């Protein structure tokens, strides 16, 4: 019997936009789910980010974040659009959206209204802040969450520039998207065991703060606190990429035996004796001095010299690449992480494969990112053709 994809047979009605929700549903699509994306008449905002290859509304971020999905445009404020969506819900396992509570209620698509008809439906709300909290209902974007969570305060603690700054990626959106992914999977497993769907709330603020404070809660994990919040090893200003003669290198001895080995193989074992660092505890308390000395040492030789030496001695190290350099990484090439494909309208593009591999399951053949409304007629016709319709999902 041929192996199936992990989520074969799972259908998801996706009414999310931008990055948070779409990253979740793209991941689920790569696992085999049939994701039908309902878009407004103007399309998801992410379609307009960046310069498209050929077609308006087919920007590069859309090509990545909405891969594997079908796009349907229905006006949900009209009886026809609303009726079509309700019929589609009857054939879906998951409904996921990121509208604010008041907006989804005005559409008549709140959980109470939907679950009365579809008790097995997994209903997922991607929101900015938890609905029971002080900030409930406020709009939230990645910048807002990085500011509120403390993330924007981290860089000043490593480089001496006191101005708060965002980490230069949509980190809060993507972290929350992964929380939403496991939330969907957990709710589906619960349904298989109990026969009941449920409402699931995934708030971005709480999700990202939970992620951020795993190590940075630090001494505040105890009551009373033993130390301030902030994991010192991550906030060490000397623990940064270091300059070689012809580039930058990251070196992470990390364990005590590797630190000792680093100074030995680089010909500077006398440093530990000179600084009276004879025990592991003494070396741990002197990490700032050891990082500073390591930076001085690696500045004396070219990058490849160090990479070869550290590989031979089992000391973790890497060249510091820019984003373009990552595209040429030999390891990523060997695992076929990037795949060149051809989009029906946009031409050649790069697709990243799902980093997690399920051995024994079929790999999903991903649809290319859809044109706006590309599948509206297909889905509407499928819903209208009673003879071709599969039965509705049991209530």
Describe the structure.
- It is built from 18 helices and eleven strands.
- By secondary structure, the protein is of the alpha/beta class.
- It folds into two domains: 11-212 and 330-384, Crotonobetainyl-coa:carnitine coa-transferase, domain 1 (Rossmann fold); 242-319, formyl-coa transferase, domain 3 (2-Layer Sandwich).
- The strands form three sheets. Strands 3-2-1-4-5-6 form a six-stranded parallel beta sheet, with helices on both faces. A three-stranded antiparallel beta sheet has the order 7-8-9, with helices on one face.
Ordered list of secondary-structure elements with their pairings:
Blueprint: E1 11-15, H1 20-30, E2 34-39, H2 60-65, E3 69-73, H3 79-89, E4 94-97, H4 101-106, H5 111-115, E5 122-127, H6 142-149, H7 156-159, H8 171-194, E6 198-203, H9 204-216, H10 232-235, E7 242-243, E8 248-251, H11 256-265, H12 270-274, H13 280-284, H14 287-298, H15 303-312, E9 317-319, H16 323-326, H17 330-334, E10 338-343, E11 347-352, H18 376-384
Parallel strand pairs: 1-2, 1-4, 2-3, 4-5, 5-6
Antiparallel strand pairs: 7-8, 8-9, 10-11
Helix pairs in contact: 1-8, 6-9, 8-9
Please supply descriptive tags for the structure shown above:
Rossmann fold; 2 domains; six-stranded parallel beta sheet; three-stranded antiparallel beta sheet; 395 residues; formyl-coa transferase, domain 3; 13% strand
Outline:
The protein is an alpha/beta fold. It is 38% helix and 13% strand. The strands form three sheets. It has a six-stranded parallel sheet, with helices on both faces. It has a three-stranded antiparallel sheet with strand order 7-8-9, with helices on one face.
